[in-house]
Amino acid sequence: MDKDIVYQIALTKIPGIGSVLAKNLIGYCGGVEAVFQKSTTFLKKVPGVGSILANNIKGFNDFSAAEKEVAFIERNGIVPLLFLDKKYPVRLRNVPDCPILLYKKGNVNLSPEKCIAIVGTRKMTEYGKQFINQLVEDLVPYNPTVVSGLAYGVDIWAHKQCLKNGLDTFGVVAHGMDRIYPAMHSNIATEMIANNGAVISEYTSGTNPDREHFPMRNRIVAGMVDAVIVVESAASGGSLITAELANQYNRDVLAVPGALGEKYSAGCNYLIKSHRANLIENVNDLVKLLNWDVKLERNTQKQLLIELTDNEQILVDLIRDNKEMGIDQLMANSGFTSSMLAMTLLELEMKNCITTLPGKRYQTIY
Fold this sequence. Notes:
The protein is of the alpha/beta class. It folds into 3 domains: 1-74, 5' to 3' exonuclease, C-terminal subdomain (DNA polymerase, domain 1, Orthogonal Bundle); 115-289, Rossmann fold (3-Layer(aba) Sandwich); 300-364, Orthogonal Bundle (Arc Repressor Mutant, subunit A), CATH 1.10.10. The chain is 46% helix and 13% strand. The chain is built from 18 helices and 12 strands. It has a 9-stranded mixed beta sheet with strand order 1-2-6-5-4-3-7-8-9, sandwiched between helices. Strands 10-12-11 form a 3-stranded antiparallel beta sheet. It starts with a helix and ends with a strand. Residues 295-304 have low confidence and may be disordered.
């Protein structure tokens, strides 16, 4: 049994330790296992940790539950991903309150080149259904991965249309991986996994789909993608929470407009009216917003004529190896100062070696 995973799971079980504080502890202590080995005096010095939480950590001894969870995930082909792992979703890792540990079954690549979310009301109308049908069909040439929440209504319809049109789709659930809620969507989840999709959760087995888990689930949906599309929503609901989180995370938000007075268009109209979302009528609005219509020059022979400095080459290699990278990742991995990084990125853009993506992310052109 992998001892590291046991400690990772155990850390998520300590009362009062959320994802932000858990990251502080790992950083200050030098690793997950070290959190459990440090003295109470040391733990108290970690920002955000007082006497009560330090005692909670030192007093934690229910490692058997963590070991039981490891046995469960190994038995069911579920992969745990610590936020420091290379296979952890790159976009989500940049979110301050991202889960320290995710459980994933299915697709190994949770950081696809293009990734969007389609969310909305559980009481979808024919208007919303037809919009999703057309949108997903028109998305096929761009081959994005589509994220949603496997819930009734817009979520499950988006997953189904992705399966129908051959697009990868991820479902983020608000409960343990020992079930699918609602149960009637289990077959769709299985089909998603079998077709290069995935089911993802931050919760251990046995965790019920309680009300408070759904807003937490929504932050994963918003954090994993480049853009969130709200198809239909009432004046309040989970989709508006996802949209608000996406705005906080510097993701693009788009909303489908609807007729005045229509209950399940009220939320979308509000997002557009209050400038919290861009209006989307068809796939072209999304493509233009995310610059998918920019054809990247991939003539390698032409690029061989460009001479790069040592610093420029370091950044190009980093970005190419990771497919795309954010400004924070580049700074952490290159060791450059902020001014040096900004100057070098600008030079690379002027030499047409990299292109800027939404959310201050970069991608090589060749």
